[in-house]
Amino acid sequence: GALVYQYPRRTICKSGTSMRMECQAVGFQATSVAWYRQSPQKTFELIALSTVNSAIKYEQNFTQEKFPISHPNLSFSSMTVLNAYLEDRGLYLCGASQQFSNERLFFGHGTKLSVL
Amino acid sequence: GEQVEQRPPHLSVREGDSAVITCTYTDPNSYYFFWYKQEPGASLQLLMKVFSSTEINEGQGFTVLLNKKDKRLSLNLTAAHPGDSAAYFCAVSANGNEKITFGAGTKLTIKP
Lengths: 116, 112
Description:
By secondary structure, chain A is mostly beta strands. Chain A has strands spanning about 5, 10-15, 20-25, 30-40, 45-50, 55-60, 70-75, 75-80, 90-95, 105, 110-115.
């Protein structure tokens, strides 16, 4: 079956430092990967949508300078939170999909980021 | 862009009663609709995916209704049990595979 492994599951970083999270797609080709953030007590906001061999599209309020994303092949994507501060806390979720398919987005388990 | 409004933000029902959560959306081109369940500290669990062509979908212990005319999507849990206590999110997409827009969520509590 199709699965998305996301790691780490939880991480704590000091204010001003950076942390990287990764997603691995298994059983399908992750042509598109969407990264979401759920801040405490809030819903899921789309950070950016990455499609292999295309430019990464960032949503308003999110930038490449703050959340650089790598999507080098059809099974892997990573995102870094640079200079993390308190407002970056939350659950980060990657969702991968195979394009031109009616398959749903396959979500990873999420990376819970705490900032001290 | 798409806007999704979800109501109510909090819902408390007794065990065995039904619970209804509703979302309205704005984009008439929306075609794929999702309901997710998020238990405390956990990630999203897909409950059901609904296509625009199907208006009623039944799962285990719940029914999803889609009213395209009113742009309204609802999740109806029948005979709620303690395991249903969680946050529920609707999500809407025009193409089903890429950008999906989430509702604000409903925190459902089942009282004994």
